Amino acid sequence: MTIESEIVTGPEGDIYGDAPAKAPKTTSQTLSASPLTVTGTSGDDDPLDGDDNNDTISGLAGNDVLNGFEGDDVMSGGDDDDVLNGGDGNDDMSGDAGNDSLYGNAGLDSIYGGDGDDYIRGGDDADYIEGGVGVDQILGDGGNDDIYGGDGDDEIYGNAGDDDLFGEAGNDDLRGGTGNDNIDGGDGDDLVRAGDGDDYVIGALGDDTLFGDDGADTIYGVGGVDNIYGGAGEDLLYGQSGSDDIFGGDDNDTIWAGTGNDYVNGGEGDDVIYGEDGKDAIFGDTGNDWIDAGADSDRIWGEDGDDVVYAGGGSDRIKGNNGVDIMYGQNNNDAIYGGAGTDYLDGGNGNDWLLGGWDADELVGGAGNDKMWGGQGADVFVFEAGTGFDIIKDFEDGIDTIGIVGFATSDSEFLKEEIWGGVKLEHDTTGEIIFIENVALADIGSSDFAFI
C-alpha cells in the first residue's frame, strides 16, 4: 500500500498483507490526530469508521455501515439502505434515500432519516430528529427530544424526558412515555398515548384517538371525529369541532365538548362539563359534577353524586339518578327526572315535564305550561308569577305541599273548582292556574300550602 499526504489507499481485504496486483479500492481516510474525512465507494457496501475526533463520513450509494465513535461527527448515508452509528458526541446524521437505521447514542444529536422507511434511535441526551418521507419508527430514548415524523404513517416514541413530538402528515402512532410531553398529531388519523407526566396534546386534523394516561393533561381534539381519554389526573379536555367521544377518567376533570353531537363521560371525580354546541349526550358518572349542556337539545345524566345541571338551550332531557341533584331546564320544553335523592328540579322557560323520583323533592315549573310528578316522598310543588297553566299529576294530600312564591299570601286568593277529575286553582287577580289531578275539592285546604 502507499501513503501520500496522510492518505492511505489500499486493496480491498487485509490491509496488513502485500497488495495483490489489482486496482486499489477507492475508500479513503485521513490517519492523524486531526478529524477524519471518510468517503465510501459509490455502489459498494462499505464499512466506514471514524475515530475519536470530529469526523466527516459519507457512504454515497450502497448499503453502507458508518461508525462515528467519539467526537462530534457529520455522517451521511447516501442512497440505499445504510446503518449509521453516531457513538458518543454531538453528531449530525443523515440517512438520505433508502430504508436506513440511525443510532445517535450519547450526545446532543441531530438526525435526519430522509426518504425511505427508517428506524431511528436518538439515544441518551436531548436529540433533534426528523423522520422525513416514509413510514418511520423513531425512538427518542433519554433526554428532552424534538421529533418530527414527516410524511408517512410513523411510529414515534418519546420515552424518558420532556419531549416535543410532531406526527405531521400521515396516520401516526405517537407515545410520549415518561415526562411532561408536548404532542401534536398533525394531519391524518393519529393515535396518541401521552404516558406519564403532565402532557399537552393536540390531535389536529383527522379522526384521532388521544390518551392522556397519567398526569394532569391538556388535550385538544381540534378537527375530525375524535376519541379523547383523559386517564388519571385532573385533565383539561377540549373536543372542539366534530362529533367527539370524550372520557374524563379518574380525578376532577374539566371538559369542553365543542361543536358537534358529542358523547361526554366525566368518569370518576368531581368534574366540570360544558356541552357547548350540538346535540350532546353527557354523563357525569361518579362524583359531584357540574354540567352546562349548552345550546341545542341535549341528554344529560348526572349519575352518582350530588350534581348540578344546567340544560341550556334546546329541548333537553335530564336524569339526576343517584345523589342530591340540582337541575335547571332553562329554555324550551324540557323533561327532568330526579331519581334517587332529595332533588331540586326547575323547568325554567317552556312547557316542561318534571318527575321527582324516589325521595322528597322540590319541583319548580317556571314559565310555561308544565306537568309535574313528585313521585315518592314528601314533595313540594313550587309556583311563581307567570307560571302559566301547570298540572300536578300525583299530589298526595297530607304528604305533599304546594309552594306559592311571590304572587299570593293565602289560599283564599285562589278560586277553587272541582273539575275534570281534579281541582283547579286560579288566582283571583293574576290568573295563574294550578290544576291538581285525582283529588277532591274537600282534600285541598290551607294546610296543603306554603307561602314563600
Automatic annotation (TrEMBL):
Q: Where is the composition biased (Polar residues)?
A: 25-42
Can you name this protein?
Calcium-binding protein
Q: List the Gene3D superfamilies.
A: Serralysin-like metalloprotease, C-terminal
- For this UniProt entry, what's an example GO CC term? extracellular region
Give one GO term, molecular function aspect.
calcium ion binding
- What spans are recorded as compositionally biased (Acidic residues)? 43-54, 70-94
Where do the record's region annotations for Disordered lie? 1-101, 158-188
Q: Which PROSITE patterns match?
A: HEMOLYSIN_CALCIUM
